[in-house]
Amino acid sequence: MARWNKAVEVAVASHPKKVPGAINYGTAGFRTKAELLDHVMYRMGLLAVIRSWAKAGQTIGVMITASHNPECDNGVKLVDPAGEMLEFAWEGLASDLAKAEDNDIPQQL
After folding, report:
1. Distance between CA 38 and CA 67 in Å, rounded?
2. Could you report how far apart the first and last alpha carbons of the chain are, in Å?
3. 95 is an active site residue
4. Mean pLDDT for the stretch of residues 86-102
5. What is the distance between the alpha carbons of residues 90 and 17, in angstroms, rounded to a whole number?
6. Tens of pLDDT along 21-79?
7. Which residues make Cβ contacts (< 8 Å) with residue 41, sequence separation at least 6?
8. What is the DSSP track for 17-69?
9. What is the rounded (10 degree) CA torsion for 74, 89, 52, 81?
10. Given pLDDT bands bounded at 50, 70 and 90, which one contains residue 1?
């Protein structure tokens, strides 16, 4: 996927996955410690672009959540065009992209 070459280059250079294991998207999006979310935040920006294409160019939000949680408890979630939660069918795609090793990003996109 040549269209993603630069995005993958930036992901690996500036937002690499630094932690092993999986982080999964749920009703509240991704929730964990802030220091574990850098690669997730960048990758969800990429997924928001793809989701926007799937929704005929409508705006997709990427939200950082933490307002009522303890300082160490943070989150990232995608928001569909009318402000609704991300469509359930896309939650698995978000999880797969977040869990992917850096060299597997192109296959996930």
Report:
1. 18
2. 8
3. no
4. 95
5. 21
6. 788 999 889 988 888 899 999 999 999 999 999 999 999 999 988 767 676 778 899 99
7. 15, 62, 64, 76
8. --S-S----BTTBEEE-GGG-HHHHHHHHHHHHHHHHHTTT---EEEEE-TTS
9. -70
10. low
Closest CA to 76 of 35, 24, 31: 31
Residue 68, token pair as written in the block: 């009522």
Would you state the pLDDT for residue 77? 95
Q: Which residue in the list 14, 52, 67, 95 is annotated as catalytic?
A: 67
CA separation for the pair 50, 4 (Å, rounded): 11
Which of 74, 77, 39 has its CA nearest to residue 61? 77
Residue type, 11: A
CA distance 104 to 109: 9
Q: Do the Cβ atoms of 12 and 102 come closer than 8 Å? A: yes
How many CB atoms sit inside 10 A of residue 13's CB? Answer: 9
Q: Dihedral of CA 74/77/82/85: which sign? A: negative
